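Q: Can someone sanity-check these two? First one:
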Amino acid sequence: MNHPATSAGLWTLAWRRLRADRVAMASLAVVCLFLLSVVLAVTGLVAADWEDEVAVNYAPPTFVGPDPALAALAQPPRPAPPNAFDPLASDIAQLRAELARQGHAAHVVKRTTLPFGADKWGHDIVRKTIKGGQTSIVVGLVAAFVAVLLGTVFGALSGFYGGRVDDLFNWFYNVFTAIPSILMILTVAAVLQTKGVLTIVLILGLTGWTGPYRLIRAEYIKHKAREYVMAADAIGASGWRKMFVHIFPNVSHVSLVQMSILVVGFIKAEVILSFLGFGVPVGVVSWGSMLNEAQNELILGKWWQLTAAASAMAILVTAFSLFADSLRDALDPKLK
């Protein structure tokens, strides 16, 4: 018995187009590697000891070679020869020898070079970059989720009900979009007056919902007059069920694409906030705080922390942007 062929759904067609796009798959692989580093950093399997002073201050990268001045400082002090006329000379000599051995052991741990150098405290830049990526990426993902959640809920209510509900949300939308985004972010940061990852998430999430709201509202205005929504209304479905059970699956790709775009913007916004002093508190590292430290190090000619943080952020942002563009093209219904 031959079964009738069923047409592929939106997500199946989108995945087929993504798999055929080499740039999209390469970008997805890069993003997954960064997300894997975040998971390993959160669980403590990687970069848990990033605060250990494993090298001398400002140890240069290995491919640059050790700094002769730093190498000289890393050598343990030599004990002075004992005095034969001093009755305590032998005891003092033994004490100095023991202190010298302890000092030598402490100095041996501190290296004069590291794969990508060290900061002014002797922290490994590679481990610090991985740990900083944990903060920046988590902030970008969680803040984007909060912004898309608010924008989707507000847009659904505004587009589906219309009338005064639509007027109310449009008024909020006009207020938020009338103020430049950076000024709005700094205003919310000044009102909260606290530093921390949660504060940054709230700042970005509460100010970034306007883009998803505008698109979701337009989609709900278009879909609420479709036949399948009228059929759901005929069988007595509630307004919330029609909004989030019947309509939302057909517009969910808009929220997904908006989230992928906002992640990129919020990672860059976290860097800007940390650079301006509104970001993570002391003791928490992020790419923004690394760039803030690096501006003083550049005066001394120490460029490796700036290069590491900027390179990691540039690679992730570029990969995420390329993947977001490919995902938007793959989910375009006109390309079916």
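And here is the second, same format, sequence then tokens:
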Amino acid sequence: MDIFADIKELGHEQLVLCHDPSCGYLGIVAIHDTTLGPALGGTRYWQYASTDDAITDALRLARGMTYKAAVAGLNLGGGKSVIIGDNKRVDREALFRAHGRFIETLGGRYITAEDIGTSPADMEYVKLETNHVAGLMGLSGDPSPVTAYGVYMGMKAAARVRWGSDDLSGKTVAVQGAGKVAYYLCRHLHAEGVTIVVTDIDGAKVKRCVEEFGAKAVAPDAIYDQKADIYAPCALGATINDDTLKRLKVAVIAGGANNQLAEPRHGDALEAKGMLYAPDYVINGGGVINVYGELHRWPEERSRKKAGEIYDTILRIFEIARRDGIPSYLAADRLAEERIGAVAGLDRMWLRGR
């Protein structure tokens, strides 16, 4: 891959490759845009097939964080870091302390938190080396409950646009993934009387949803063939692709995963098929809201209330899409870019000492 061509195309400010041989640490930090504030984005710990795959994932996720923070109305930019390796590794202190030391060298331009493969306990190790970390134990901690609540509210907004009512009772939702966000989402859906179809590569997680929510379990690849009202991708990205578009039998796509569209053209294809798509980085913005709340010491209820505003943001995006005659994923980008552009265009003022 041509790294400079990729960061130029996506508009990134900085890409840092990090290595500490003492503990086998291989890390990547991508900073996309700091117009609105320091770049915030979690640390993903994953066994990538190649270094190119890891860099691509970091770049895409960092850009998504910029847009996510912008549409959520937060004073943050977008970044992301990834650690390459087996996230089941037990001896984690040295690894995450090494990660924290590299983050400290960025001088506050990047703030990390937990993500796939990491936990609040891992962030405590990072905290030993830098203050530029959130998602700590005893503070906001696991952002999954707030993220799931935002997805749930965004799903209700999409239902209102599609069916004229945000009442989900009696609807069937196919949930791909049964991890932390998906679990809390299923809890909300079950409480409202939704029929849930669920899958995950981890059978224990699926079993939990079956036992607690009466969900129907299906094989991982079979989730795309289910007859449902809503498809909720809540695992890894790119599950809206050439293959799945031929198989999905839903009216709405609204879930918590990042980078749900394999390519932008798949957003166009959803529009052509009449499937209503709630843009991923908008509907799953509760996680970044939760972390922002921790940084500013918000009480938990304030973060949850802010995540509930995703309902109104989703409605606004669908209105922009209707008004401008564009797919919803482009309408979300337009909303984010307008806010970033407005702040970037503000006149600088003289301040003593600067």
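A (reply): Looked at the second one. The first helix runs from residue 3 to 10. The first strand starts at residue 14 and ends at 20.
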